[in-house]
Amino acid sequence: MFSFVKVKCSAGDGEPLKVMISGATASWKGTLCDLTGKKFGLVHISTGDLLRVEVAARTEIGHKAKDFMTAGKLVPDEIVTAMATARLSFQDVKEKGWLLDGYPRIFAQSQSLEKGNIRQIFTLC
Length: 125
Prior knowledge:
Layout: E1 10-12, E2 15-16, E3 18-21, H1 29-40, E4 43-46, H2 47-56, H3 60-70, H4 77-88, H5 91-96, E5 98-101, H6 107-115, E6 122-124
Parallel strand pairs: 3-5, 3-6, 4-5
Antiparallel strand pairs: 1-2
């Protein structure tokens, strides 16, 4: 089982904690994200969950993503980054802080977040 080290639950100046957890497939990221999110009261954001929600809601971005998913292709970074960035702008995330689950996965995605001035305060790899 996991044990948590003592970390501060805010970035200082009243800013909530921002965490990214990355790792290989089947590396317990999901479990670690669930435990970490609950422990620190963070909004758990999984791009896979975001994709499923957008497709189910039949949004414009969901339709675009579904076309790629149905064809067995990866959803382009622009679409995934747009969804993640949009979710990070919600009020619950601004108040509680966030935990990105397995995203960004590649340098290009990380650069996209950087362009939007989205940075983590604490990273677990």
